[in-house]
Amino acid sequence: MTRPHATGADLLVLHTLRCIGFAGLARVAEAAGLPEADVESELIDLGVAGLVSHAAGDFGGWGLTEAGRAADADRIAAQLETAGARPAVTAAYDGFLVLNPELLDLCAAWQTRSVDGVLTINEHTDPGYDARVLDRLTALDRRAEVVGEALSAALPRFGRYRVRLGEALGRARAGALEYVTDSTASYHSVWFQLHEDLLATLGIPR
Amino acid sequence: MRWIRPLSPEVEETAAILGAKAHGLVVLQRLGLPVPPGFVITTAACRAFLRDGRLPGGLDTELAAAVADLEAATGRRLGGPQRPLVVSVRSGASVSMPGMMSTVLNLGLTAEATAGLAAETGDPGFARDSRRRFLSSFASAVGEPVPDDAARQLTRAVEAVFSSWDTPRARTYRELQEIPQDLATAVTVQAMVFGNRDGHSGSGVAFSRNPTTGEPVPFGEVLFGGQGEEVVSGAALTRPLRDLADREPAAWAGLLEALDRVESRYRDPCYLEFTFEAGQPWVLQARPGRFVGGAAVRVAVDLADEGVIGRREALLRVSPRQLRLVRTPRIVAEDGADVLARGLGACPGVAVGRVATTAGQAVRMAADGPVILVRPETSPLDLHGLAAAAGVVTARGGPASHAAVVARAMGKPAVVGARDLTIDVADASVRAGGHTVPEGTLVTIDGTAGAVVMGRARIGTGGADPHLDRLLGWADEVSGGSSDRGEAARLGAAHAALRHG
Q1: 3-state secondary structure of B84
Q2: CB < 8 Å to B207, chain A
Q3: Which residue does chain A place closest to B376, by CA atoms?
Q4: Is A59 at the interface with chain B, CB within 8 A?
Q5: Collapsing DSSP states into helix, strand and coil, what is residue B144?
Q6: Contact (CB, 8 A) for B113 and B123
Q7: The domain containing residue B315 runs over which residues?
Q8: N or C: which end of chain B has fewer CB within 10 A?
Q9: Residue B155 — very low, low, confident or very high, per pLDDT cuts 50/70/90?
């Protein structure tokens, strides 16, 4: 017996791939919050159904087919309407858009510094500066919680983003600096996947 | 007046009160350079506005008086049905906060004033174009319906510029840059000069020396028939500055004079924003050129040779940290180089590769050699293409866009916001400025300068550099040290000797 509006594993895997793009098994599992074995089994079933495909090579991985993209759009829209969640998700998206430019500024500030008005790479040799950026990011994350909670209440699958954003921020604050912008599980990566998810869920073209 | 100062050579107050922009304009006036007339509302008025949530008492009267003075000086009337006065309303704090605050241009063009401008110039198209620019500028800065009353337009614009000091983005920027939150911005109001006026009008930006090499030759770009914002934002395709010499010799001569006087005053290269209207040049803004890397080294050595500064000052002008930038590859700026598009440099470095218009194509083409991924913008769905590419170009977005952040994470040269580019995925081509560039065409991108150049461009690799060798020779003389150390160490030792000696 699943909870109302809970997302089945097949749709969860399909939609995760829709939001993160081409990715290997480990990244899909991390993003979806499911064991790798389960995700692999779902991916194979989705592949048999012609909704996903696997490309070999250095930059390969799992990706949606055109049919998969269309199927995801249909199913995720149906879920939104069945749950009656459109007004809540739309309102949360408006809240997200207020925070988005601030988050992007902070990511840019994390990676670059203006030296005499010229853009240079932040070499992370000034702990005071890095700490100021992380403090601002923490403050922004607290404001983002309101949006996250509203989304989870409307559609529980959105709860995974709060977990992943919290993990990324925690790791960055613990000294793993790549979790701000540079790793595939960084705050910036997860934030951007949430943005992509909101657009996909509401059917808004980029 | 308590809150307002005229722009005049006699104004004595500091940039803390006038803002750096107005302060710079006063300096230009003292140098005898042509600056459009205007006035400045001080940072004190902004602080009062931010504290009380409304413009301070008495400002409205002062504003009306300042406008009346400007009307008298120009022989025009704000919102007038004949010879209307049109103004620019610009932010300007004592510190630089690029792109963080608001500006409203072409203000005063009510429906009636627009008709008046059309009648005065005999050019309804120019008047309409200017009004269109005003409406979009007002809308993005003020965010509410445009009153058809010029005085109210001005009041609302001033409030909007003051408010733009305190947006969350601006607060964050200041916190990170350690800029005090209570400096506040001034507002500079000047009579508009119209780069879009006629065939002998335009706008541009100019450095007194080449900013990538430091060579003592004026360098910049010019947009014929356009206003300055288009040049600065990179929204329009500009011409090399030299074209001005052939097309508008009087404006060119005036510009050279201005570059010369301002550089002499700074004792350092300068950057000017200028407009010429019906052949007559005007200087709109001046600031130091802020050269880095090899250009900074060359300028320091040249200025010492020219006797403008001493060798000690030449040494102190280049920081050891700068020396690393000498080694960052750059496209060597050349007038007439085949520039496909310009945007913002988002991650320094140069990449040469073949154009791919989708992430999938980038992955496929990367097997046969370096690829430049060219996209309208990027999203997580392009990550594999970004990973496969040697560099990235986007038509939209700024320094904080997805493409910029990811490119820096991957250490790949990136140019973003190259607005002139159109990416046609169906046709597998990229268009800009009348060129159509099919997928697979070789281009070079410079993630410092924000340039996309056709073919394989000349690249400054930071190899043997006679100017650097001379500067380091001076450093060794000062420090008494030897030359068998790293470059930064040699310069650092000289700095230490000069500061403590």
Answers
A1: strand
A2: none
A3: A206
A4: yes
A5: coil
A6: no
A7: 295-327+463-500
A8: C
A9: very high
pTM for the predicted model, two decimal places: 0.81
Q: Chains A and B: how many Cβ contacts under 8 Å? A: 96
Which of 139-178 (A) contact B at CB < 8 A? none
Alpha carbons B384 and A112: distance in angstroms, whole number: 23
Do both B271 and B344 map to the same domain?
no
User: What are B12-34's pLDDT values in tens digits?
Assistant: 999 999 999 999 999 999 999 99
Residues B348, B454 within the same domain: yes
Q: What is the pLDDT of residues A149-192, one digit of tens each?
A: 999 999 999 999 999 999 999 999 999 999 999 888 999 999 99
Our count of domains for chain B comes to 4
Residue B334: predicted pLDDT: 66
| Nearest chain A CA: its distance from B115 CA (Å) | 39
* Beta strand ranges found along chain A (DSSP E): 52-55, 61-64, 112-115, 118-121
Helix, strand, coil share (%) of chain B residues, nearest 5: 40, 20, 35
Residue where a domain stops, chosen among B124, B157, B191: B191
Characterize the bridge pairing of strands B429-432 and B422-424.
antiparallel
- A86-111 vs A66-82: helix axis angle to the nearest 10? 120
Whether residue B64 sits in one domain with residue B37: yes
pLDDT level of residue B187 (50, 70, 90 thresholds)? very high
